[in-house]
Amino acid sequence: MAERRRYLSVRGGEWAFAVIGLPLALLGGIYALAVLYAGALLSLTVLGLPFAVAALMSARGLGALHRRLVGRLLGECVEAPAKLPLPTGVIDRGRIVLTDPVAWRTLLYLVLRLPLGVLGFASAVALPLGCGWLIGFPLWIRLLQPGPPPAGPLAAASTVLGLLLLSAVPGAIRSLSGANRRLARLLLGPARAQQRVRELETARATLLADSTDQFRRLERDLHDGIQAQLVALAITLSLADDALSPTAAPDLRRLRTLVDRARTQTDDTVTELRRLTQGIHPVALDRGLGEALPGLAATSPVPVTVHLDLRERPHPAVARALYFCAAELLTNIAKHSGARSAELTASAAGGRIRLIVRDDGCGDAALGTGTGLTGLAERLAAVDGVLRVDSPPGGPTVVTAELPTRLC
User: How far apart are CA 361 and CA 165, in angstroms?
Assistant: First the structure.
């Protein structure tokens, strides 16, 4: 029943898009075909290049109109491409416009949108009207032909056929709406190169902010922690030196107490320095992920089963990102999941390395919910990695991180 209701449910925006979208699809398709045809004819004349430049700049405006229409009626938010940088020179400006991939992809969208618009209008308007005519065919026959109605299988078959076709209308509209969404995502958004540049810029900004925070935290810890401990150690040694003053007999008991205190302060300072340097570069990574990940899992308060198949040794930056990813995920399991057991799997083959962390906790984890997964995904993006989270309510939670073993 749920599947049937989902099949029959068509949002009002999808109906409106199928009806309103036909005039825009016709205008856009005719515009794109006319631009391509006229541009080919004028390509050998002096008017060819100016015409192509003006047409491509207008195509960007049509793409923005269709993006808004898809967003308002179909609920598909398509990211707007970056504005076209226009230099001051006429020749340079024309060259930039002519090589703009967004404008050319918009023209392709307008061409492909034309048949989809016709099919959408036919599904939303022409097909229901035809179904109504087929269902009412016995009535039309009675109205058009006076006398006793003609009996026969034709009237019953038309009614059955009309009902069958009418039941297919919601599915047709939903399918065409999905095709329009996919087409808009594919051709009206930023080009793949532009999107990749945006992702790298965002990841770089995130890394710079994260590095700045780490350095400030390290500076604060060194100033407030290590420096204070070293000052206390220096005072203790100064007191020990005073206890050895030649002007009086040395107090061996007090001297031993001061030496023990200095030893304890030295041990605490070394421990604190080891803790600070651990956050900069884990020493365990010097022996590779094959030893670092089991050691990390051993420190988790939740029992973790480790499965490793590391046939390739990743780049040090990739290994470091994967190590901290595993550390963050295990910390999240201990703090938020309520899990009784977890499983960590790492495999590297074919130029890719994959980390899968699974737990039997309460689930309901997602990117952007405040458990650090969003920042983790942004840091992985800096090394061309992706993070996927599958965590239904009630669990289990499966988080997958995939990265290249080499950086280009």
Answer: 48
Cα separation, 67 vs 21, whole angstroms: 12
Q: Using an 8 Å Cβ cutoff, are 359 and 396 in contact? A: yes
**CA pair distance 9, 177, nearest whole angstrom:** 13
31 shares its domain with 176: yes
Q: Which residues contact 112 (CB under 8 A, 6 or more apart)?
A: 183, 187
If asked whether residues 39 and 162 sit together in one domain, one would say yes
pTM: 0.52
What is the three-class DSSP state of 223?
helix
By DSSP bridging, strand 397-404 and strand 352-359 are: antiparallel
Q: Which of 136, 170, 187 is the last residue of a domain?
A: 187
| Token duo for residue 182 | 């996919």
Whole-number Å distance between alpha carbons of 372 and 52? 48
Number of compact structural domains in the chain: 3
Range of the domain at 74: 2-187
Q: Are residue 215 and residue 294 in the same domain, yes or no?
A: no
Q: Which of 218, 252, 280 is the last residue before a domain boundary?
A: 280
For residues 122 and 20, membership in a common domain is answered with: yes
Q: Residue 384 and residue 386: Cα distance in Å, rounded?
A: 7
Angstrom distance (rounded) from CA 105 to CA 94:
17
Nearest to 377 by CA among 339, 404, 345, 403: 403
Tell me the CA distances in angstroms from 125 to 252, 300, 304, one per residue in order: 103, 62, 59
Looking at the fold, whether 78 and 167 belong to one and the same domain comes out as yes
Same domain, 242 and 291: no
Q: What is the pLDDT along the chain (408 residues), one digit of tens a residue?
A: 444 455 456 777 888 888 888 888 889 888 888 888 887 777 777 777 788 888 888 888 888 888 888 888 888 888 778 777 766 777 777 777 777 888 888 899 999 999 998 998 888 888 888 777 777 766 666 666 665 555 556 666 777 777 777 778 888 888 888 899 999 888 888 766 666 666 666 666 666 666 666 667 767 766 667 777 787 778 887 777 777 766 666 667 777 887 888 888 888 777 777 666 655 566 667 778 888 888 888 888 888 899 988 888 888 878 888 888 888 888 888 888 888 889 999 988 888 889 999 998 888 887 766 557 777 787 777 777 888 888 888 878 899 989 888 866
For residues 86 and 52, give the distance between their C-alpha atoms in angstroms, rounded to a whole number: 16
Do the beta carbons of residue 324 and residue 371 sit within 8 Å? no
Residues 6 and 145 in one domain: yes
